[in-house]
Amino acid sequence: MSTPHHEYPDAVVAPAPTMWPMLAALGVTLVFAGLVTHVAATVVGAVLFVTSAVGWFRSVLPEEASEIVALRPGAERARPASTSTRTVEHLEPGGPQSHRMRLPVEIHPYAAGLQGGIVGGAVMALLACLFGLLDQRSIWYPINLLAASAMPSLAEAPVSLLMQFDATGFVVASIVHGLMSLMVGMLYAMILPMLPRQPILLGGIVAPLLWSAIVWASLGIVNPALNDRIHWGWFVASQIGFGLIAGIVIARSERIRTLQALPIAVRAGIEGGLREDGRADAR
Fold this sequence. Notes:
Oligomer: single chain
Number of strands: 6
Structural class: mainly alpha
Largest sheet: 2 strands, antiparallel
Distance between the termini: 61 Å
């Protein structure tokens, strides 16, 4: 039975500690773990959950179990908080003494990322075709190699077949190259404003080198036959060409400010844009 608090002025009545909630959580975890492991785990978890639920309810019904916790002596207790009549100055977003904003404050438009991906993809395709002419005397060799990433039959095809035009391979390579160029261009548009210094250098050289290393390490495991046919020097050169051209196109685009400096009502669409006097137009 609980004891009134006023009978213990130097103590508080707190709920008694119990282990049943943790055991109930463990039981539920075992129930779902047994679905992918063994039925025995589900059975043990169900029994543990039911037992914990019964014990948990018994600790609060018909009366909650409690214990008396003694307080520290008055000299050791924290002093009561004192009120102050001083006011707090609020910072207005976007003002001369603005609060700290999240970086980047300005970003490139998404359209610039698409443009950079298209131009960079075109330069990358030209470099790949140049490699095909110099190394295999055929522009279809690199195109068919790219299509081999989605067509296993081309990955093990003889070199003589890779040097010939393949309509299916051309369509597959065009789709893969186009989608990858657009996605990487959009990614560049989002990442470049976050780079503090020399964004074109980091995005055009460092990022392609890291991407090439990841492809080289993974392709040797996923598709060794295709990995042996790729000239990695030209692969890295084409990736750097894409990164530099796409980075230049995106970096030269006009940046737009993010909405974090605008009032929350404007960002939520409750009010319109700002008038010439700096106030928000209500809709």
